[in-house]
Amino acid sequence: MIKLRVELGDRSYPILVGEGLLARAGPILRNLGFRTPPTVVTNNHILRLHGQALLPSLKESFGPSAIIRIGDGERFKNQVSLTRIYDGLLRSRADRGSWILAFGGGVVGDTAGFAAATYMRGIQFVSVPTTLLAQVDSSVGGKVGINLPGGKNLIGAFHQPRAVLSDTATLRSLPARELAAGLYEVVKCGAIRSRALLRYLEKNLAAILSCEVPALAHVIAEAVRIKAAVVESDEREGNARMILNFGHTVGHALEAATEYRRFKHGEAVAWGMIAAARLGFELGMLCHNEAERLIQLIHRIERLPSLHGVPAAGAWHALRQDKKSRDGKLRFVLLRGIGHPEIVDDLDHNLVRRFIFDFLGTGDGLR
Amino acid sequence: MIKLRVELGDRSYPILVGEGLLARAGPILRNLGFRTPPTVVTNNHILRLHGQALLPSLKESFGPSAIIRIGDGERFKNQVSLTRIYDGLLRSRADRGSWILAFGGGVVGDTAGFAAATYMRGIQFVSVPTTLLAQVDSSVGGKVGINLPGGKNLIGAFHQPRAVLSDTATLRSLPARELAAGLYEVVKCGAIRSRALLRYLEKNLAAILSCEVPALAHVIAEAVRIKAAVVESDEREGNARMILNFGHTVGHALEAATEYRRFKHGEAVAWGMIAAARLGFELGMLCHNEAERLIQLIHRIERLPSLHGVPAAGAWHALRQDKKSRDGKLRFVLLRGIGHPEIVDDLDHNLVRRFIFDFLGTGDGLR
């Protein structure tokens, strides 16, 4: 088991990564000071796959937990699921001393975390992420929230978990596309902070993709360590934290332009990183070699859904509406070499527009 | 104009109290650094009464503001109004640099403040409270939130405003009952922290009730100063902030037992303070004289809705569900003399039960 710690003063918390943690969750959480049973927020799919690993351990340590099930999938990260969680908390007479255990992927974690952030102005929650993407990304950093019909993650808060338990065993049941979607975020962490991690990925990709524990646990822990360090320096998203958005500007635009149907979030970010690498190369910030290496690594992970037919006008429109933009400025995270991200918000609108149209026409070729 | 400041590090903000502030809001807010027009959240009643005072000033300083209207009354402090605010923000393309101006009483302030706390994980807001209760209580301290069908203020956050502008002129249009409801919170501030304020209220009650500016502005500023000092010492409700709940344990129980129909919140708190005075007297914490003086002052303000027929069993049930309770302990704020509140959470359940049944039978008599 690898034990990391996110240092945020009185909101500090441990992140545990290892094989078989679900079955030890009860004693681990008792050790962290919990004494009453949590309200478990999850979905039926996760319960079926992993409930038998987690629930008996919780029961033995705390007695029976109330379970709230929400729908499975991004479209359930909404106000309906949120209300369902609130209702469940009320029904089980949760008070300010109660706590939530979010058991599932990013949708469960974000929605349950936001419920915890806002129920009685904030109760504690523990995250038990069951997808690679949630383990390396959404469970670290305290961003919680839901989507509105008008856009993703528009409603949210910063609310740190009391602990994160990432069991590598849960990843073995992930479809290949889901595993890849998480790995792209690991690539992102390497791209912005660690050549060593990128090199490790290049060398050990086969072992990671077949979920061999030491390799998988290593890259999860490295990605978490990198993200945690960024979050520690900037909990509430000033500029430092912004570098975590590498690949996200174009990524979000691709998701929006295809109405969130064609790409998984990680896949859109993968294309977004390819676009950022290419844009960085065209602007003379990133050399051909480094851009090429990053792009090749991304393509080796899994075949990405094609960009063919993504409406460029729609992507451009979405880009201009991006949540990261302020006062109408377009904001990109670009690399001045691997490991050296820069926030660039003075790009000419016409240049970016031309780049987007070009990128969606030609894909990832570097000229 | 009286200028106070709530000191909370980088979340510090000024509270301005004075006559005619609405008409000067634009320049005041420009001085505080705002440059773009706010999204104004309000209701039709307030717009009709005070829109002509505020809006031209905002327009002159910032250009036209988007206006979002929600329903008027406690039952509109809910998810429907919240969604309406989110939709309005999206429609006016509000981004992270946008800000909300909450223009109205506590319902507007709490709901708009919660929307600001959660839209894009938090945007700035300014509070322009138009009721005495909002000016002395809900606009200070950063508690924002909405009700659920299952209970009041169950969903919320801590989100400090960037400024509060309290115009005493708006109070002249308040019904007497509304003015009284706010004054009870002023009495509360005196009871927990300032004999001088209680004495001032006793001496100047007539001037205050007829909204004479110096007297009214003085008690608003004193109440704000007291509440701000408590909040500064304890922003997120540890024990120090708990003393602001003087009168609220029984107050909330009375509201719940009458389904929030008989008492305004301030009136319920007034009865709650009477109950707390009586309980403090019975437990030997408060002398007869001080209890009597507090009770008499409360009764001089306005005739309180009768306790007659309030179901004691319902009040007792609600008391045990109180949000302030933890692990099933009943928690009261009682006075060990005026200005010296204590948190008491080891009272015998039977004693409290008997007290509640007795209180609802006999009202405010000290035995």
Structure explained in plain terms:
The structure is a homodimer of 367-residue chains. Chain A is α/β, with parallel strands linked by helices and 367 residues long. Chain A has 2 domains: 2-173, Rossmann fold, CATH 3.40.50; 198-362, Dehydroquinate synthase-like - alpha domain (Dehydroquinate synthase-like, alpha domain, Up-down Bundle), CATH 1.20.1090. Chain A contains 14 helices and 11 strands. Chain A has helices spanning 25-31, 44-62, 79-91, 106-118, 132-138, 176-193, 195-209, 213-233, 239-242, 248-257, 265-282, 288-301, 312-320, 349-362; strands at residues 2-6, 13-18, 39-42, 66-69, 99-104, 124-129, 143-148, 151-158, 163-167, 332-335, 341-344. In chain A, helix 6 (176-193) packs antiparallel against helix 12 (288-301), helix 7 runs antiparallel to helix 8 (213-233) and helix 10 (248-257) packs across helix 11. Chain A is globular. The model of chain A has no long low-confidence stretch (mean pLDDT 94). At the A-B interface, helix 3, strand 7 and strand 8 of A face helix 3, strand 7 and strand 8 of B.
Overall 3D shape of chain A: globular
The total count of helices of chain A amounts to 14
Q: In what order do the strands lie side by side in the largest sheet of chain A? A: 1-2-9-6-5-3-4
**CATH architecture descriptor of the largest domain in chain A:** 3-Layer(aba) Sandwich
CATH classification class of the largest domain in chain A: Alpha Beta
- What is the share of helical residues of chain A? 40-55%
Quaternary state of this entry equals homodimer
Q: What's the structural domain tally of chain A?
A: 2
Which chains share the greatest interface?
A-B, 32 and 32 residues
Derived from helix and strand composition plus strand pairing, the structural class of chain A reads alpha/beta
Secondary-structure element order of chain A, as H and E? EEHEHEHEHEHEEEHHHHHHHHEEH
Rg of chain A, alpha carbons: 20 Å
Average of pLDDT of chain A:
94
Strand content of chain A: 15-25%
Distance between the termini of chain A: 45 Å
Largest sheet of chain A: 7 strands, mixed
- The CATH topology of the largest domain in chain A corresponds to Rossmann fold
Number of strands of chain A: 11
